[in-house]
């Protein structure tokens, strides 16, 4: 058994569990560990003293996991930007079949809400009224409007995709 094999067998499981503390997806942790052991192999890090090697491995896992989260944040930010671009495209009047399906799903989900929640969502998203204006129009306290909006959006999050929620949250229809 080579030094590398011994190191792999000694640390792999511990490093995997350590990586799982940072990342829930096991496959992503496996990928990170594979990259780290590739570096150990290529740069002959397995020749380091045990204490230095152990420190190197655990620091590498931690740093790789943090880099993973930074990368995910950028990817998610980019996805939000893509949906925003699509939303702007949608507003330009060039509606695609997919976008119509998104809207149909949003309308369908709203129709399934309790009447109080549906009314507040429609006033907020379709008529573009602010919470205070909704409270005045319905003659209810502002806090009640905020609560109904929160509960309506929470219910809609369970029924719609993340993209559809993004569209709904950013939706304020202009009159046709």
Automatic annotation (TrEMBL):
SUPFAM superfamilies: Sigma2 domain of RNA polymerase sigma factors, Sigma3 and sigma4 domains of RNA polymerase sigma factors. The keyword Transcription regulation applies. Residues 8-72 form the RNA polymerase sigma-70 region domain. Keywords: Sigma factor, Transcription, Transcription regulation. InterPro entries: RNA_pol_sigma-70-like, RNA_pol_sigma-70_dom, RNA_pol_sigma70_bacteroid, RNA_pol_sigma70_r2, RNA_pol_sigma70_r4_t2, RNA_pol_sigma_r2, RNA_pol_sigma_r3/r4-like, WH-like_DNA-bd_sf. GO terms for biological process: DNA-templated transcription initiation. It comes from the Bacteria. One of its GO terms (molecular function) is sigma factor activity. Residues 104-156 form the RNA polymerase sigma factor 70 region 4 type domain. It holds the Pfam family Sigma70_r4_2. Belongs to the sigma-70 factor family. ECF subfamily. NCBIfam families: Sig70_bacteroi1 (TIGR02985), sigma70-ECF (TIGR02937). PANTHER family: RNA POLYMERASE ECF-TYPE SIGMA FACTO, RNA POLYMERASE SIGMA-70 FACTOR ECF SUBFAMILY. This is RNA polymerase sigma-70 factor.
């Amino acid at each position: 058994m080579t030094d590398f094999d011994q190191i792999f067998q000694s640390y792999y499981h511990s490093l995997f569990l350590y990586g799982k503390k940072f990342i829930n997806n096991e496959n992503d942790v496996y990928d990170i560990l594979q990259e780290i052991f590739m570096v150990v192999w290529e740069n002959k890090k397995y020749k380091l003293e045990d204490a230095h090697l152990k420190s190197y491995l655990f620091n590498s896992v931690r740093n790789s996991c943090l880099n993973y989260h930074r990368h995910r944040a950028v990817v998610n930010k980019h996805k939000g930007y893509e949906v925003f671009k699509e939303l702007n495209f949608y507003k330009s009047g060039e509606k695609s079949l997919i976008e119509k399906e998104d809207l149909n799903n949003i309308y369908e989900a709203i129709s399934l809400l309790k009447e109080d929640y549906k009314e507040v969502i429609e006033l907020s998203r379709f008529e573009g009224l602010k919470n205070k204006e909704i409270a005045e129009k319905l003659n209810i306290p502002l806090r009640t409007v905020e609560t109904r909006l929160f509960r309506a959006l929470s219910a809609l999050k369970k029924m719609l995709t993340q993209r559809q929620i993004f569209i709904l949250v950013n939706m304020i229809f202009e009159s046709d």
